Amino acid sequence: MQHLLGLTTNELQNLAKEMGQPAYRGAQIATWIYQRQAQSFEAMTDLPKAFREKLAESATVGYPTIAHKDMATDETVKYLFDLPGGQRVESVYLPYAERVSVCLSSQVGCAAGCRFCATAQGGFARNLTAGEIVGQLLFMQSESNRRISHAVYMGMGEPLWNYANVIKSLNLLHNEVGMSLRNLTVSTVGVVPGILALAEENLPITLALSLHAPDDDLRSDLIPTGRKWKIDEILTACAEYAAKTGRDLTFEYLLIGGVNDSPEQAQQLAARLRAKRLQGNVNLIPFNYVDTKEGFRRPERESVARFREELEKAGRTTTQRMTRGSAISAACGQLRRTIALSDVRQNTAGKV
Ligand code: SAH
Q: How far is CA 253 from CA 55, 189, 238, 241, 292, in A?
């Protein structure tokens, strides 16, 4: 079976021609998939019935199937999708007053091994295809009466380790779905070759770096991948990215109580960014509780405020990520983990 979700209009036109149809039939299919969220060929009512039947014999639209869905009181919706092969990824729908954003996964699991992250607990399984990445957004769009305008690649996985599929998905979201590239944010753990390659793509997306610590000892303790690329090397790549693209990056900084949230660490962070002449916002993310053996805790309100104050004193624009949907485990990998654990419990209960 060929999955059509993930193909461009051009590729769909070629497919139509190969099946003895005029090219414009392929463009019609693209409109159905990417703009009208058709989940079956049957729904594509302006295609000849015989062609729809023929398509159904050899291809699928490739829509994701939903395994679980949770809605929080703030209207954040967390989705868990089933993939072929029994794997699962999650996505989050985040409606705000002035825009609707979604958080997408780029891999099943992740190899970065960050000690604070739920996704890391399960290790890495595989890359998502471009269609599987875009499919998460299209499914959420099909369930919403508001237009999804923004997407962040901050779900499961490291986007720059799935480089080709992520680039293809960004192009599909722009060219086929009609989203503005400026509204798409790719978040990276700091994969230096990926940052440098992305600088050459000429895509005006937003790049976010998960920095999380101002010195290499602490960073490589929290993020084992940090041993591979030192902060200096990562920030040099970021400076090159900013120079080539003319776009500022966003620096994400996860605050963990008593670990990386002191005023001195804030000063050190500001100094490091200044030393590389990096503009750009620092986005503070209070640690979302994950049930791991690490014993990490959320930072105190006052230390978050103090941290922010120090950054602002140093001339750094700072935002603070609102914690949304925490009651529904709306952080990286948490839903999949919660469900997986309860599946295990149910299975065990079944066996006993
Ligand atoms: N691999 C990419 C994108 C996925 S994670 C990256 O590292 O940027 C998206 C963001 O969520 C990252 O900044 C990550 O560090 C953060 N994150 C992971 N676990 C978290 C937790 N328990 N609480 C808050 N943020 C978390």
A: 48, 11, 15, 19, 20
